[in-house]
Every structure is written in C-alpha cells, then in structure tokens.
C-alpha cells in the first residue's frame, strides 16, 4: 500500500501536467477554427469584419446579428446553455463558417456552469477584441464601448484598417475570458493613458497554468503566459466585481492593450 501511495504521489503531478497540455492543444485548435471562420467571413464580405456588439443582453437577429449572441451569467439564464446562439445563423453570423461546431466556443479548461460551479455547463468561454468589428446600430461604434476611447484609439471594421500598428500578427481577435467575467461576446479593454494607469475591465482567463489562449488577425494562436497572474482574480464561480481591478504598471494589462488597438493619430503608445 505504501508503494502504491508513493507511485500515485509521483504520477499525479505528471498526469495533471499532461491534462493541462492536452487542454491547451485543444484550446488552440478551437481558437484557430474560430479565427479561420472570422477570416472567411471577411473574405466573403469584401474585407468587412463580422459585427462584434457589446453592452446589451438583447439578442439581435439577422441581418443585425453579431458574430455570436447571448449574455452569460450564473443565474441559470437560457443564454448560458443555448447553443443556437452559436450555431444558428439567425443569431450568429459566424455559424455558417463553423460547421455547427458548438464545442469550439468553449475552452476545455473552463468548468463553469449556469449556476456557477453547479448546473449545466455553459456554452461559451471566448470573447472578441472590442476594437475589432463595428456595430450596425444607429448609435455608432458600440464595439468601441466606453473603454477603447474611440476615436483617440482605433477600432477596426475592415481588413484594410489593420495593415499598420499593431498589425495582423499583433492584433488579437479572440481570447478566453474569465468565467466570472464573461457576459456578452465582446471583451472590453481600458486603453491606458500611461503605463501607470492600468485597469482590467473585462478579465481574461488564466486556466492554462496562469496563461490564456489568444488568436491573432493573421490566423496564428498562442497560449500567452501572464507575468503578474496574481493581479487576475482567481475563478470563484461568482460574478466578478469589476470595479477597481487594477495595479499600477501591470505588465499584463499593458501587453493586452498593445495588442488591442493603436492611437488614431499614428503616435506610439506611451508604454
């Protein structure tokens, strides 16, 4: 029995590490599939990116629908488990390009359910860069939100707009959002005015060993390791209070900002 216990103690960390590696590989495959769908949509619509709406729990239908629909929470909302908001083109404009692959919208490391840690598994963990995609409503560029600070910083609605800074290989499109943070399909980023003024609005995941899955406009995907993971709240399966999640000079917020947008006047970001 003692020998078995020793062997188990030796094997369990290795098995855990292998599981995390497998989850990371699957996550990257899912992300690449989504980004390929995003690029195919743009190719079919003369270089115009699919709409990325934000800030509303309302579900728009075609032709005013966005890349995905649904507002996720921990209150047992039907949106939490409704795959139609992912694979039905009436609600989700990438549906026709995803081959009804609903599983690609959720990282395998995300264990969130419609009542937090219990209930039915939620259907989505991914969100899109709030600077990518333009709203179709008369209100203007809702995808820029109150955080990108458009027009000081760029928002991108067409392929022709991303040739320069940050450029396709540096402009992130999809990431895995923290289960406690995710709601709509857009990931809000507060573009810092200085290196010191760093604050999370929406919060990324860190389920891959304090790292997060990202894809970029050129189609590549990566698991990005956070430098200050302690500043990213741990998942508790309760709604995240997003007021005041900040640290001065947070290197991870600065990294995300530099890969989110650029200044519209062409000057370099001050960090």
Report a brief summary of the structure.
This protein has 271 residues and is of the alpha+beta class. The chain contains 4 helices and 9 strands. The radius of gyration is 19 Å and the shape is globular.
Structural description of this entry:
The chain is α+β, with helices and mostly antiparallel strands and 271 residues long. It has one domain (19-258). It is 22% helix and 12% strand. It is built from four helices and nine strands, in the order αααβββββββββα. The chain has helices at residues 2-44, 84-87, 95-98, 251-258, and strands spanning 113-115, 118-121, 126-129, 172-176, 186-187, 199-200, 211-216, 221-225, 245-246. The protein has a five-stranded mixed beta sheet, with helices on one face. Strand 1 (113-115) and strand 2 form a beta hairpin. It is globular.
Amino-to-carboxy terminus distance: 57 Å
**Annotation field: number of helices:** 4
The major β-sheet equals: 5 strands, mixed
Number of strands: 9
On the 0-100 scale, what is the average pLDDT?
89
Give the oligomeric state of the chains in this entry, treating copies of one chain as homo and distinct chains as hetero.
Answer: single chain
Order of helices and strands: HHHEEEEEEEEEH
Report helical residue fraction: 10-25%
Structural classification? alpha+beta
Please, how many domains?
1
Q: What is the overall silhouette? A: globular
Q: Could you give the order of strands across the largest sheet? A: 5-3-4-7-8
> What is the CA-atom radius of gyration, in angstroms?
19 Å
Low-confidence stretches: 136-144
